[in-house]
Amino acid sequence: MKDLFGKAILDYQTDNNPQNLVTETSISEEDEMSVAYLFRNYSQMPQIEQKALQLSKGKILDVGCGAGSHSLYLQEEDFDVTAIDISPNAVEACRLRGLKKTVNTDVMAFGDEKYDTILLLMNGTGICGRLSKIGIFLQKLKTLLNYGGQILLDSSDIIYMFDEDEIPSDTSYYGEVIFKITYKGESELPFDWLYIDYDTLKTASEANGLNCDRIMEGNHFDYLARLTIKE
Asked: Which helix (H) or strand (E) holds 131?
């Protein structure tokens, strides 16, 4: 991976001629994304993200932290928060922004400590990639939870993007997309990304020993869910 997403974040943080990211998926055309949006403060965040931060408690792990805006808010609120991301450039930007605990790692390879809250925001299930991997993904997150801990994640049901005759067959899940990123004329290798509807998430959670509750719904087919370990 060229880490173009992280490069855009670091360019913005260091004022190195940042430009918009160009994103495209297997079910949508090219669209421009302002990198500045990743640096939003609490008042600029969607209500779902604000709610997740309000519900955060104890020792917190922010998975896929990106530019670190969620972690920075929590740190300013005196929480013990660790921000992790697979992007070395994004993690460097987080450090430059003043985050005290940052780790450049894939969550699947992370596991030295346990947490009271695990955050996966901005479609946190995306990093799972494929629905076939959701069980392994959830089991890994369970190993990182303290007793009484919670996983707070948001995602979207993207079935609205399909006509009835376009929905994939039973052999595939419509929320699986291939993502492409271009930045400053360079293209990243395509990667898998998962949008998961709430009912499918709930079924997968219960199959892996987790309770799943929908905390709130957003304005555009998105939702916030809380997962806890079944007693």
From this structure: none
109 is written with which tokens?
């390879």
> Which residue ranges make up each domain of the chain?
43-172+192-229
Which residue(s) pair with 183 in the sheet? 186
pTM of the predicted protein model: 0.96
Cα–Cα distance between 204 and 140 in angstroms, integer?
13
* Angle 75-219-199 from CA coordinates, rounded to 5°: 90
**CATH tag, 43-172+192-229:** 3.40.50.150
| Closest by Cα among 34, 5, 40, 2 to 19 | 34
Nearest Cα residue to 48 out of 225, 195, 205: 225
Q: Which helix (H) or strand (E) holds 127?
A: none
Q: What are phi and psi of 151, to 5 degrees?
A: -110, 125
Q: What is the pLDDT of residues 118-152, one digit of tens each?
A: 999 999 999 999 999 999 999 999 999 999 999 99
Quick: pLDDT tens for 35-89: 999 999 999 999 999 999 999 999 999 999 999 999 999 999 999 999 999 999 9
